[in-house]
Amino acid sequence: MGCSLWAPLDILTTMLSNFFFCLLSAVKLYLLGFRVLLAQLSNKPLRLPVMPRQDGKVAIVTGGGRGIGYEVVRHLARLGTHVIIGGRDEQEGLAAVRRICEEHKEAKVEFRKLDLASLQSVRQFTKSFKERDLPLNILINNAGVMLLPEGRTDDGFELHFGVNYLGHFLLTWLLLDTLKDSGKCGDNSSVVSVSSSAHGIGEIRLNDLNCRQHYSAHAAYCNSKLAQLLFSSHLHQELQLGGFPVISCAVDPGMVDTALYHHLWTPLRMAQSLIARLLFRTPAEGAATVLSAALSPALNGDCGGGYWANGRREMTTPPSFNPQLQRGLWEVSIQLLGLQ
Ligand SMILES: NC(=O)c1ccc[n+]([C@@H]2O[C@H](COP(=O)([O-])OP(=O)(O)OC[C@H]3O[C@@H](n4cnc5c(N)ncnc54)[C@H](OP(=O)(O)O)[C@@H]3O)[C@@H](O)[C@H]2O)c1
């Protein structure tokens, strides 16, 4: 009797708490976006420094069929890098390859199927890559999803966590030996994780990485971007400790006018597309920081790493430096992926 009286109240409390969690997460992200946009407007437009040719080098760029990734591929190919686009959409990927090859006749670009929402696809992609015995000098973990309705990857992970973070974790892990073999002292290989300033309001709860307690698409995106940063920083330290010629860094490309915003609530989407045309960075400007992070350390022979934004290395928020959180997330990820 008592139970049945309290049950509707419990349901109502849960619904209200979910509603407020979603609302708060959305407000936090939009306020952050507003602040970032203001800061971006006061910064000078980003220009890519002149980079020397990269002939003989090989790069993998995930999600390189459009947006920021496409511009990264285009520029690397122009510098002579052999670039492999890892992507889900074959038509889009092949169209990107065609466009780049039309623009630069000698470009060496190819598309290979990679779905980061499937661990099997990640394993298949790395297996085929390794069978070719190519070096790997640059890995750009760029592909990403934002504000998707609640959903799961093929392996049952929350979509933002699974695609933005865990899929890239596995990809990097499986390619690490090739990256190590391909780097040289003074000419390190690099792993660049394309994160976002949204990491600053992310939260990592090791006991609820799949957001089963509460789901907010806004929070899930921010959390996945923080996870990428923690991963990138921990990986860099491990590589430095082991003395390997590989650097790992994370990048915030800024607010860039791309299809990433397609899942915004329709009225917001309409306002965003207007504002974006005027005030957001172009994909090429977004790519500038990614390319600087990937190429500058190798060129300058410094030890690389860190967090890059606005075309240079910058400081970031304290949770990203928390070594316990970094190690905790690393260990849980290894368990979730069944590695070691
Ligand atoms: N745009 C911004 O303002 C902004 C700001 C901060 C950070 N970023 C980050 O920048 C990165 C690039 O985003 P963007 O702005 O260029 O967006 P975009 O144009 O939507 O590009 C995202 C790319 O990721 C690919 N992708 C999505 N799910 C995938 C999956 N399961 N497997 C393989 N590839 C997948 C997409 O391909 P398909 O969906 O066609 O498969 C697409 O090529 C993302 O990590 C994003 O979080 C962007």
Automatic annotation (TrEMBL):
InterPro entries with a match to the protein in the record: NAD(P)-bd_dom_sf (IPR036291), SDR_fam (IPR002347)
Name listed for the protein in its UniProt record: Dehydrogenase/reductase (SDR family) X-linked
GO MF annotation, one: oxidoreductase activity
Sequence intervals crossing the membrane: 15-38
Signal peptide residues on this chain, from the entry's feature table: none
Family: Belongs to the short-chain dehydrogenases/reductases (SDR) family.
Record key words, sorted: Membrane, Oxidoreductase, Transmembrane, Transmembrane helix
Pfam families noted in UniProt: adh_short
SUPFAM superfamilies: NAD(P)-binding Rossmann-fold domains (SSF51735)
Species this chain originates from: Nothobranchius furzeri
Gene3D superfamilies: NAD(P)-binding Rossmann-like Domain
